[in-house]
């Protein structure tokens, strides 16, 4: 347990996590995901780095399950059907690696990739490229889900790394949110089972994760109300803005890695 967590009472930690969860889930509804980037730094300080992945996975399972139920009719089940096999294998492999090693450089790679996606998107707007520069087929989600699940199991979440892929497939607003939430719910089920089987899931991890999930309930309701009142273009711009913020945050968090080099 970290030094900060020793200075705070259990009640104070619970209140901090619940409040941060509400804020994170509300904004993630409007930005197509990304709640972990608000929660992970806080959890790391309060609970220690090793607890982040199991705790955030528990919370994300609850929040994404609820979110997918809100938009049940919008889910593209063809995408989910291709996503699941890669997600299952990737979650098991990633959890096994997590139990033995820490891969700090993975966040650096993801941060660079996120910023590259943003640059590509804004150049496309400047030079009037198509909003869908390449066509994504449903089966593409199988290999990408495998890689995404490995990374997610290692660092807790890969954030909005797959958002451009959903857009290129043709999903917008509610359909994108619904399908992504459904896929993420399955991902976090597989991750939790893998963590438990490998002995890295503790009872207090589940308790703190439940707080994150409970904070998601009112936030998802409020976010859904706002989402219905914005346009597809506004939604897409907010998503890419958050992708950029996420990329910078990942690189900043691993600044010690750059200094070491």
Q: How is the quaternary structure best described?
A: single chain
Number of beta-strand segments = 0
What does the main sheet amount to?
Answer: none
Question: Which of globular, elongated, flat, extended, rod-shaped describes the shape?
Answer: globular
- Taking the alpha carbons of the first and last residues, their distance comes to 29 Å
Helix count equals 12
Structural domain count: 1
Indicate the low-confidence ranges by residue numbers. 1-6
Taking all Cα atoms into account, the compactness measure Rg is: 17 Å
Proportion of helical residues = over 70%
**What would you call the structural class?**
mainly alpha
Proportion of strand residues: under 5%
What is the average per-residue confidence, as pLDDT, rounded to a whole number? 82
Instruction: Write the H/E string, N to C.
Output: HHHHHHHHHHHH
């Amino acid at each position: 347990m970290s030094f900060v967590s020793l200075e705070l009472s259990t009640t104070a930690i619970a209140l901090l996590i619940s409040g941060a969860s509400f804020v994170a889930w509300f904004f993630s509804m409007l930005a197509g995901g990304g709640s972990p980037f608000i929660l992970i730094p806080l959890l790391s300080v309060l609970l220690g780095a090793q607890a982040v992945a199991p705790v955030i996975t528990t919370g994300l399972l609850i929040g994404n399950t609820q979110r997918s139920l809100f938009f049940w009719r919008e889910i593209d089940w063809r995408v989910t059907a291709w996503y699941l096999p890669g997600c299952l294998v990737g979650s098991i492999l990633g959890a096994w690696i997590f139990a033995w090693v820490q891969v700090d450089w993975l966040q650096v790679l993801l941060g660079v990739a996120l910023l590259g996606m943003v640059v590509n998107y804004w150049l496309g707007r400047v030079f009037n490229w198509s909003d869908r520069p390449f066509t994504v087929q449903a089966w593409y989600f199988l290999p990408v889900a495998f890689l995404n699940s490995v990374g997610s199991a290692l660092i807790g979440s890969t954030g909005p790394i797959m958002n451009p892929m959903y857009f290129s497939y043709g999903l917008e607003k509610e359909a994108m949110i619904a399908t992504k939430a459904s896929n993420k719910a399955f991902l976090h089920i597989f991750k939790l089972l893998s963590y438990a089987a490998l002995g890295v899931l503790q009872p207090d991890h589940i308790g703190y994760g439940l707080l994150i999930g409970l904070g998601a309930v009112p936030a998802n309701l409020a976010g859904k109300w706002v989402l219905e009142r914005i346009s597809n273009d506004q939604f897409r711009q907010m998503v890419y803005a958050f992708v950029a913020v996420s990329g910078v945050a990942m690189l900043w968090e691993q600044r010690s890695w750059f200094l070491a080099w």
